[in-house]
Amino acid sequence: MPYIGKGANGFGIRERYRYSASGSQTAFTGSDLDSKTLQIDSGSLVDVFINGVLMDTADYNTNTANQVTLTSGATASDEVMIVVYDVFSLSDAMPKTGGTFTGGITGTTSTFSGAVTNNSTTTLNDDVTLTGANYNVTWDKSDNALEFGDNAKLTFGAGNDLQIYHTPGTGTFIDEADDGSLFIRSSRVTMHKYTGETMINAAADGAVSLYYDDSKKLETVASGVDIYNGSSGNSPALVLKDMNSGVVSGDSGGGLYWYTNDGNGQGNNLAIIQKFENSAGGAGIGFEVGTGSSRDERMRLNTNGQLIMRNANADANACITVRQSVGSGLGGVYIDTYSYYSNIPGINITNGDTNNARNMEDVEFHRNGALKGYIRIKHNGVDFTSSSDYRLKEDAKEITNAFEQIKKLKPYNFKWKNSDDRQDGFFAHEIGEVFDYVAQGEKDATEVKKNVVRNKDGFVIAQNIEKADWEKRKADADNEEASPKGETTYPTDSTWQKEYEDIKAQTIDNSKLVPMLTACLQEAIAKIETLETKVKALEEA
What does the alpha-carbon distance between residue 464 and residue 497 come to, in Å, rounded to a whole number? Predict the structure, then answer.
């Protein structure tokens, strides 16, 4: 039936409820004639019609929740219509050309022109395309992906300093444009080919590894860097390439540099290994040590096969040149040998001359530029000579009383404790009491040695050997073929000691006794000749 009176001005209808009044009924609530339960939300607006006539708001109230109460009771069988309206008003409707929504928008198709500002949460339930001037960005619901078209950029920063984008046929780019740092923070960072092949792997508090064709080639470790060579044949693990196309004679190429630590991880370069195209000593690989620009070349292996140490100049045709040219510093050659196999010498000096008539010095000894002696390999033996020119000597005194001096010596035949060898000789401290220039060192002197290996008889056979290294080498002692060639092995009954007080043995130079023995023999001959003369005179008498 038509309504009499003014309808709801500017309010959207939420729901209508119909009731049939009983005599003098004032309260209407609960289920209506259509079995709908009266629902009045806080703030909702309500119109009440009785028999189609709109009631004045003074004739009813909604003070009780979900109930309309009339001021005067209705007549029996009166039709009471209660209309509940939504809380928004037509004044909140957004005009065609602008305005503000304070509620949500639900629809299948909406078109907006101009700027749209949303001050709350927006939910979009299907594909969304953001159309750019040249490139689009799409949320693809079925792919669960935010898809950037080719060359469409994801940018960060007020000045678009960080940009991520893909250019077809070229690649994908991450551009940091403000000259700042690009940080990737994680407990582990890996870089893989899209098929899964590993290229870089970096772990927090651990290794950073580089791969080639899914094979590890370089890895940082606690002590430095490990380089792996998994290639067959003679492929190198590390290659240094000088890409300078303008190399000329005298140039040196970059190589390996070592730096001192100044507390900030920096400092002067202390040592360099680099190549030389040509210079004094010839082309080759040079080794420099020093501080900063004050480095000096101390060794070079040149293309002629010469090893040059201490300075850059090789001696003529020498294979090895060792020069002492560092002021008052100690210089020379220290050779520590170990003959791994029987009948193989630690040091082998060979003269290939087949002409036995020629004699050449195979080893020469010089002091202050002057020849002091030499070792000469002859076709039938070895000569050992030392300088003895009278022009090099002064204050010469004839040896006298040699017979009495020699009588003081105590020669022995003895056995060495660490071998089965017997030998004739002297005790150093005893011969030193007679001839102090023959013996060297102090009687009963000792020295402390670290990390020593001792044989079953207690003699030190090695020092400065870590315990773990001794244990490994001891295990190989009975199988030298299984041990690395050139690596010392130790007897299975040997022992290791962190610190040991060993004897500091005295030494003697027996050759220094020759002149005294000669003088003694001469005195003895003189005595014999005197006695022979006396005997002859007695015989003649």
Answer: 10
